[in-house]
Amino acid sequence: MGVETSEHGRGQADLAEQYPDLPDYYHIPLSETIDRAKQAQTTGSVVIVFYTDPHHKLGGNQLRAAAAVKHAAKALSSDCMVIGGDIMENGPKIEVLLAQSELMDAIRMQGCPAFPMRGNHDDNSIEDFRLKIKGANNVIFPVEAYMDIYRSLDGTVSFDKGNESGLYYYYDIPVKKTRIVMLNSVDVLYKVKADGMLQQNGQWEYAFSDRQVDWFEHKVFDFSDIPDGDKWKVVIFSHLPIIQRGVKGYVDGEVENGEKIWKVIKTNRNQVVACLFGHVHIDQVLYQDGIPLISTLNAVSYRNYAESPDRTVGTASETAFDLISIDCSKGELRMTRFGAGEDRIVIFEV
């Protein structure tokens, strides 16, 4: 028994040395999660870390989650990280901007790009509503978000040229013949009216703009200048579900032009792997027209539904993110969960 304790002690010490920036209650769960994710990988797998709805506050526990995300991404030689929106919790504009930058700075790393998406909380318009201020003093406009956390992706991703502050873009992994698409489901018109208030409020009004729909149809699925373009696959991320039929959780209004986006997806279904999203704060997998729609649990430590797992700050369950491995030859998408929730296997058409 003494030898076993000693061996266990050395294991704990090794993990503490391996994860010096993480609390000890992350060490074993993270190591075990990475081991399971490695077993899920096959030669040529597309590997993505999906971390969504952190609702980060300055100095909050999501900084621990961000450090864990980076350790996992490095250990798995991940192709990219996707941060699925609702990056920060709402509040005074300066604090929210600082929190947004703090979390993105904490999660970025060399060799594995981090791709943020626009969530409905990310324009911070709810703060003026909460304070009953008839204005837009606390709103984070798309051009501000672009300058703060998206502009660093210039040259790495393909934005809609001339409309970079639309905040939608894609990233190509040529060696794996895969295109990763980040849509903006809160692509509303940010216009301030004469009374100082927004014409549309991104907290409650959701849309894919006509321009984004056109870009999605004619740019995302245009592989004409790529050798073997017909063999490429497309993985689509959005904060809100593109369509909401059958979706559980925070289903609080259709996304304008969602059906148009879905029509493009159906037209190109032979190339689409899956559509992944956050926002609803619950895990689920459903199929529309044979295409998987997958939501991932909120990273923030909220348990919003009885069927969701318990969340306890000070344990690994205080957060949640998925380590995704996609095997296009088998039509298999494996999601290995760190934190609250369970691993999942999703099948798609090849």
TrEMBL record:
One of its GO terms (molecular function) is hydrolase activity. Signal peptide: none annotated. InterPro entries: Calcineurin-like_PHP, Metallo-depent_PP-like, STPP_CPPED1. Residues 48-282 form the Calcineurin-like phosphoesterase domain. PANTHER family: CALCINEURIN-LIKE PHOSPHOESTERASE DOMAIN-CONTAINING PROTEIN (PTHR43143:SF4), METALLOPHOSPHOESTERASE, CALCINEURIN SUPERFAMILY (PTHR43143). This is KID repeat family protein. It holds the Pfam family Metallophos.
